[in-house]
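Training component of the fellowship. As part of building independent skills, the fellow (R.M.) carried out the full modelling exercise for a liganded target. The chosen ligand was arginine. The inputs are recorded below so that the supervisory panel can assess the work.
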Amino acid sequence: MKKPWAGRFKESTASSVEDFTESISFDWRLWPYDIEGSIAHTRMLAHQGILKKNEAKEIISGLKEIHKEIEQGVFQWKKELEDVHMNIEHSLIEKIGPIGGKLHTARSRNDQIALDLRLYLRDTTREIIKGIKSFQKRLLSVAEKEAETIMPGYTHLQHAQPVVLAQHLLAYVEMFQRDRERYEDGLKRIDTMPLGACALAGTTLPTDRTYLARILKFKRVAENSMDAVSDRDFIIEFLSASAIMMMHFSRLSEELILWATEEFSFIDLPDAYTTGSSIMPQKKNPDVLELIRGKTGRVYGSLMSLLTTMKALPLTYNRDLQEDKIPLFDTVDTIRAVLSIMTEMFPRIRFNRKRMREASTEGYTLATDIAEYLVMKGLPFRQAHEVTGQIVRYAIERGKGLEELSVQELKGFSSLIEDDIRDILDVEKAIRRRKSRGATSPSEIKKQIQRYKRML
Ligand code: ARG
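Fellow's submitted model of the complex:
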């Protein structure tokens, strides 16, 4: 097949080179954006008198026909035509004849691919932002139900202080809020119109890029023609926001995997979202969560892959840039799937409130409360810490919990300890006392939930 660029070549392309250089096997999915861009470009050319009205009409109706054919699955993609751009343009010329050859006036595949990617990523980012919001809503509604579920809070994966489950879940709502903001911020730079930069230097033809930006609903025009065709920062930012979000999903998955173990027994995962073992009949494995944790590595890899591709590229377009698409598409597919399956699964997790409550005081989690009690009675914190440490050691030596020590025993450690120490060792009251801003008391939990209800 004769290439659109064959004019200066004596030999035809080696078939190994066609295999090696093609991108149609993966960039075909940009077709709706490629056609949208071509229609806008045609309108601009007609608006500027570069094309006649009837020529533009013919080109646009040809493009619309191609749109239908692709949608109906009857369009034949050809590897010999390299990429999505040349496949569509070639088919247009086949359909409407030499007038179709006017479409590529004042345009290069370099600005065309930059445009397609921006249109694609603008839609995709908006969809992902909505997806994060839905997931946050699910987290929030579970948090509301678990506002009184007391559990141990951990540092170093050791029992630290009691919290409520809602507080733990709201921490994730916060994390995903930052993710959403990162995508929203990236959207500002994605929303920049590169078309009309042509290959790199602009054009001698009287185009109007501002008009193009307006009809394609872009907020900004890429202001430098060389930057316009060589910039992939917007994809790197997208991959970076995705890598950070996957890290959040991976942490959440890891916690749920731990909580589902026999040792923790904090949760029961829904049957529909777990898998069995081919040999051990009793098994119910958290494979979905493990795969989310595992796929995080792939998304990190995509970010590193594109950063590495870009790191020594001279201006402007180099074919290396074609390697941006596979990591991008793979990441989009991954985060779409992760968002959707987590949003489905999360509300169906059963929390074992009784077990969490029991665990909440195991491991001397109220020791800090005793130290703060002594502080309120006037003891410097360092001394209060020391005295409480002695109480803990005493309890450990006798194999008792703090709440199992008698007031008499406790009084032996400091003359400041009085009968009101009983209240300090009541975990429900301990939760209510943590009233500082953003803490785990019911009043602060309520404020956090209200705030997110307004935002979401
Ligand atoms: N398939 C190419 C890519 O993905 C499109 C741009 C090609 N431009 C060129 N001059 N070879 O980047």
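The panel noted the following from the submitted structure. Residues 360-443 form a domain with the Ribonucleotide Reductase Protein R1; domain 1 fold (CATH 1.10.40.30). The two ends are 54 Å apart (CA to CA).
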